[in-house]
## 1
Amino acid sequence: MQATRIVVIGAGAAGLVASRELERRGHDVTVLESRRAVGGRIRTHRFGSVQPGPLVELGAMRIPGAHERTMALIRELGLGSRLRPFLTLFSDDRTFVHTAVGHVQVRDAPPVLVQQLRSRLPAADHREDTVRFAAWLAASATATAPADFAHAMSDDVLRELLTFVDGIDVRPYLGTRWSGGVDLNTFFTDHSRAAMQHGGRLLSFFADMAAETSLPLSRLTGGMDQIAHRLAAGLRGDILVGHEVVGIDVHARGVRLIVRNGAEVTVMECDAVVCTVPFSVLRHIALRGLHPDKLELIHDMAYWPGTKIALLCREPFWQRDGIMGGASFTGGVVRQTYYPPVEHDPVHGAALLASYSIGTDAQVLDDMDPATRTSVVLDELSAIHPQLSRPGMVREVVTRSWGQDRWSHGAAAARWGKDPGTCEDERLLAARPEGRLLFAGEHCSSYPAWIEGAVESAREVVRHIRLPAAARAGRIG
């Protein structure tokens, strides 16, 4: 495909990276963004007007070390010096894990989790190391998966895994990174066949679970939204915020867009268009000229809702209890609680990511009115952090529901529970161009739900567009 004037729909990570790569190849690029700001599902919330001050990530918040494209991009943007370790679930042994007998600190959890597993599989006869490994694996899966995905770690799956793990020396993966935990990321890298148990339908789930609960992970001090801001600042072309695409018509000569900006509606004739908006949003846009199977996928692709609830607290009280970072699996409606580092004057307070949930867990919170939701979360979290009940401790509450956001209708494309072949077929169809309409975004990638997927798909999509010969010779653009 040859083009020189290209419109990119969406100023999230995929749209901004695609625009950057296209401009590097000599194309003229205009970006259309429905929101009033760039970044998409990268969303850093800063409490107060004094900066640096307390901040919390309401969208993307961590980067696995194995995500080389994202790490390279951060360094290219001059942000490499701001990379810091991200402490995840169970990485601080004073954080908590929800068990059948209540909340237990991670350092005291191994025997409780082992007993909990043995009670589920009373007839199982396995090595002690195997059972300890599987107990932490089950705890990590329960902490990562929403309630409606509980079948992912059914007793049958656990039995298959226990049998497989019995033939492996798991001692190198036990407690190698932190007290009591397991290094799932290295384990699944070294023993990829383990993730293929149960017909491979849990492969993507195990990959995400390992990435979320294993080190190394990184964050950006000062906020993840610096990625989007640096990308946007480096573009030559216009980024038109507040411009909503309401119609896309693919025809023989290019793509026609119907764009609404407030009360004004305009028609844009484009040589080519790169669409990076989630299919959960695209299905609400009038579409013409697309193949029926692509339309079917756009309509049917499943997305996880995702909800985060953050608190501005008077002080980082959790540090007095020895918690210096990481996250607790708190269960209930709260699900996961993260303790962001305090990298500012504590007189301005401290941010606490009180609740992070996905899937049906997020939907439960989304269905509550704001006052009820805040009350339920505070009551539940106060069971392990009674300081939250002290007068004046909670200064502000902010919620981000990606499932209810009209520009996302979900936090990420959902592929858990599908076999690898189905996942790949869906990815290829999602990324397949329709004439001069091309597609990118985490839903078109091998890494759904991660910035890595956005970067991967953005760089892949530009390979489909070639600069006309006249433009290469300097006579166009």
## 2
Amino acid sequence: MLPIRLDKRLAELLGCPRGEARRYIEGGWVRVDGQVVEQPQAAVTTEQIDLDPAARDERAERVSMLLAKPPGMPADALCAQITPETQSPLDASGTRPLQRHFHGLQLAASLPAADSGLVVISQDPLILSHLQQQLSRTEQEFLVDVQGERALWDVARLQAGLKENGRTIPGCKISWQSEQRLRFAGKGLHPRMLREACAGASMQVVGIRRLRIGRVSLGKLAAGHWRYLGADERF
């Protein structure tokens, strides 16, 4: 028997349009000799082809992932960190991982290599565009670990030092989480600004971790692990 495309063979078996067969395959609903195959162009001959009884005829949506960036990992290595092996066991999104989810990923909200915490990686052009254009207008939350001579620390100078283009950032909330850990929450914040403000208040920054972007939080994700952005989550 001559090889034939999987989508053509499936369409013949199901008696359905080829476009519908292609969507089943791309959705991860088709097995060839017991193995899921997501490529409609895959060549088949006499293999056993099965459609999952739970199969739905729907287009595979572009996905976004939330990664707990470890400290020291550069931006150009973050997308490669998104693999089936590093998906968090805490992922409760209900999204079924597909091979296509791990292609065409782009970094939407990065962090400097030295810092850690929440970064966003996505295939979705709407998410990418929103975060690339609106991140500075979105509230973010950071934890900053500091050290140095406490007698010299000046929180008033710290607040005044949160500046962008010479103008103080309004509305930022600063609170102590422990003797050497500060919490910052506000719009327009970024790690460079936090470092400069802490230096101006006689504090030496040891580490910065981003906990939240808008209404989306890091939660209990372990460093180096990721989860899907839930359908009901909005930045």
